[in-house]
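re: ur msg from earlier - yeah i can do the zinc ion complex, just paste it... oh wait u already did. ok heres what im feeding in:
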Amino acid sequence: MNGRVIRAYGKSFVVLSDGREYNCAVMSKAKQVQKETPVAVGDVVEFNSTGDGPGFIESVHPRKTKFSRPKVGDDSIEQVIVANVDQMVIVVSVAQPVFKQHLIDRFTVSAYKGGLRPVVVINKVDLKHKVDLTRMKTIYESIEVPVVATSCEQNVGADELRELLANHESIFVGHSGTGKSSLVNMLQPGLRLRTGDVSMSTDKGTHTTTAVEVYPLDGGGFVADTPGLKILGLWDLERDELGYLFPEFERFRSECRFSRCSHLHEPQCAVRQAVNEGIIFRERFASYEKIYSTL
Ligand SMILES: Nc1nc2c(ncn2[C@@H]2O[C@H](COP(=O)(O)OP(=O)(O)OP(=O)(O)O)[C@@H](O)[C@H]2O)c(=O)[nH]1
Ligand SMILES: [Mg+2]
Ligand SMILES: [Zn+2]
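and the outut:
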């Protein structure tokens, strides 16, 4: 049988096939891909099941897209968090936890690398804050990344977000406590996902969501809620490749004097010139430099 993995609990999986859910384990031959999560939420799988008792996942179809990171503790292994979705909804909050634009850029890099379209959600706009929302829209919409300002407290931005998600398969990512689960609840009030308190002492969330879960949307498509990530490692990313994951560099790259220009210190760099002229946004370039230095 053919199905789609919608939940993963350690070594057991729930596979959706023809509207029915099957509990499955993984057959050893499907486990052979050692350096990569063998089965992830979103995977299309072949499995067998008699209906009672657990079934077995026999093989996993090649992944079209993936959101992955180096496994924490063993960074030679690729941890695929979700496979085969088309959008990454990057959830940040204007406060509690503190707004960090750099994190948005780390996630966009991860999205482009995995073949996903990024969408930025800036949540908790009901709180007192100093984030320049107009500037955020200008920056990201210039690279065709939609930005939605939301408040789950005051029901702001729900329709706009619903429209972006309809008929897409989206994964919600971001630090713990930014309001990913609250947003899913706002979109689809019947779900009642558990949401948590942001710990006041550390301004960091406490990981209320502990596993990736998939929820169908009334408007078509589905969303996958994920636990907040403390660190977003970037999987399999070479320094030479990073500039290609900043779409605004594209039109300038060919005008750099050196073909393998890092855009950091070479003379006659068209990308840096575009930054100086304000055509490429300074904040984005700062993120490029910062990520480059970690690769
Ligand atoms: N003021 C305000 N608080 C919000 C808003 N959205 C969520 N919260 C609160 O923020 C806290 C964290 O929300 P969650 O939805 O659990 O956050 P999460 O991103 O799912 O967190 P993890 O599951 O740990 O990754 C809860 O106390 C929510 O009530 C908002 O728009 N405004
Ligand atoms: Mg959550
Ligand atoms: Zn250059």
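cool cool. The chain is about 25% helix and 25% strand. ping me if u need the other ligands too
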